[in-house]
Write a structure and sequence with these properties.
Layout lengths: L14 E4 L4 E5 L4 E7 L5 E9 L1 E6 L5 E6 L10 E5 L5 E5 L5 E5 L5 E6 L2 E6 L7 E5 L5 E5 L4 E7 L13 E7 L11 E4 L5 E6 L5 E7 L5 E7 L7 E2 L6 E5 L5 E5 L4 E9 L4 E3 L3 E5 L11 E3 L6 E7 L5 E4 L7
Length: 328
């Protein structure tokens, strides 16, 4: 508790609440998390780096690096991107300017594509060179995955066949052919453009299938899979809601996050154009807020480890008396 007679500068708070004209409840910091590798039972095998108010965005194909955001004042994620070494725990600034979203790694791990306020933007993972826009767009592009077959998937709200808005579709999944270092080799075209919202497209290890989430008629998000680049038949693999699909890099399995915060797994028997799916089974509860509509996990190369955000005990709330006197 702090008295009005003290001279004090408050750090950026996660939030403050004026309980009364004389009492101020103050949260001195956003919620802290730490990256950790866990097994299929959710047991923590290794913690990575130091705690921070992290946001999880994308992991490299070999699991050695992850692009992160860090929450700033008011609990709002900063749009500057940092790179975390998951082996040594070292965190370095990666993209330090602009409003940046949805980074994805190239299959060889040498390039990252992300959405900026100017369009689809590219930067080398070495950090050498400045970001450059490779596909200008008047509205934000949110890439979600990059396949070995040379395609990038991205989400776009209300995007029609060109750049016109199509309000009836809400959100589409688009596909863009690119070179190994992220330069477009053609125009973006729709992969999935149904009524309602489709998002979160992720390629299978061989690039021949896509897992994605779609809002059903009831308004609930469910996970589906279909072939790529031509779609044959959408197959629903989630039950009772789901989002944030990730393929097992070893094949034959898809993971997703349930609406209750459970990490679910579905076995697949697949050929070129069809798949038989098992009943989803629960692996463990992801220790993140169920109110956050983000996966906040990724799958290690062996398919048996997961990189997740592990909550760290928060600092206690502070109660400040006669807080209005501090403003004088």
């Amino acid at each position: 508790m702090h008295l009005a007679g003290e001279s004090r500068v408050l750090a950026d708070p996660a939030w403050t609440v004026a309980v009364s004209s004389s009492l101020l409840l103050y949260d001195p910091a956003p919620a802290m998390t730490q990256f950790g590798w866990v097994d299929r039972n959710g047991k923590v095998l290794q913690l990575v780096g130091d705690p921070a108010p992290f946001g999880f965005t994308a992991m490299s194909p070999d699991g050695s690096r992850v692009v992160v955001t860090v929450t700033a004042n008011g609990g709002i994620p900063a749009t500057l991107l940092s790179m975390l070494d998951t082996r040594r725990g070292i965190l370095n600034r990666f993209v330090g300017i602009g409003a940046n979203t949805s980074p994805v790694f190239s299959p060889d791990g040498q390039t990252v594509l992300f959405g900026s306020d100017q369009g689809l933007t590219r930067i080398a993972t070495s950090g050498v060179g400045d970001p450059n826009v490779v596909h200008p767009f008047t509205r934000r592009i949110n890439p979600t995955d990059w396949s070995r077959r040379g395609f990038v998937l991205f989400g776009q709200f209300g995007l029609g066949l060109g750049t016109e808005m199509d309000r009836s579709t809400e959100a589409n999944i688009m596909m863009l052919p690119v070179t190994p270092d992220g330069k477009p080799t053609g125009e973006a075209t729709p992969y999935l453009q149904n009524l309602g919202a489709q998002s979160g497209g992720r390629f299978s290890p061989d690039g021949g299938w896509v897992a994605y989430e779609e809002s059903t008629k009831s308004g609930q998000s469910e996970v589906f899979i279909d072939t790529f680049p031509e779609r044959h038949r959408a197959i629903q693999i989630s039950t009772n809601g789901g989002f944030g699909a990730r393929w097992n890099p070893q094949g034959g399995e898809v993971f997703y996050r349930s609406l209750a915060g459970k990490l679910m797994a579905v076995n697949l028997q697949m050929d070129k154009n069809s798949a038989d799916v098992s009943t989803p089974r629960e692996l463990f509860t992801l220790p993140v807020s169920t109110l956050t509509y983000r996966p906040q996990y990724d799958v290690g190369q062996d398919g048996n480890r997961f990189l997740i955000l592990v909550p760290v005990k928060k600092a206690p709330l502070e109660l400040i008396t006669n807080w209005q006197a501090l403003l004088k």
